[in-house]
Amino acid sequence: MKKRGGRKSLIETSPQLVENLGAVLRDHTAGDPMREDVKWTNLSRRQISRRLKELGTPAGKNVVSRLLYEHGYRRRKPQKKRTMGQHADRNAQFEKIAKLKREALDAGTPVISIDTKKKEMLGNFHRDGITDAVEPTIVNDHDFASCSNSKVIPHGIYDVGKNEASLHLNSNCDTTEFCCKSIERWWHEQGQHDYASADEVLTKC
Questions:
Q1: 131 and 62, same domain (yes or no)
Q2: Of 122, 4, 113, 6, nearest to 66 (Cα)?
Q3: Residue 156: its H or E element
Q4: What is the pTM of this model?
Q5: Which of 70, 90, 113 is the last residue of a domain?
């Protein structure tokens, strides 16, 4: 039987607790149909602990962590490794883009790279990160869009030649109109001052 850190396995010493853990995870475990060893649960350790208590076998988060570990569960993040294939002309495309960028920069033409970033709902929602505070920050237990006041859409513009970036925020929709307005604002606020003689802009998007 597996042991961790020199301690006896909970699977061996707490059969009722293990049985209840199986009951808790039964309807909250998913996996990869192509790989039987890949599985995960959508319950947090706190939720599992609460459900185990309701079943008559109280267990704190540390005990739950040990149980999950002994059952093969690990804290993992998705990994971007699965290739989706490449277009036959992919390399030629990037060579063309690099050529256009180089020619534009040599001619003093502004080159900007644009993109929208992750949209964020505005409201009393959970955010990643930790702060030093006297009292805990209490937020909603679910991030439902219906509870959101609005959402913010960041649109970034990166000036390749000057290695500077601008960020514009919109609270409506991610549309082509918003993109064009963002570029227009960048031009009036920054671009026309940095490139007074320019009559065109190379845009990578």
A1: no
A2: 4
A3: strand 150-159
A4: 0.53
A5: 70
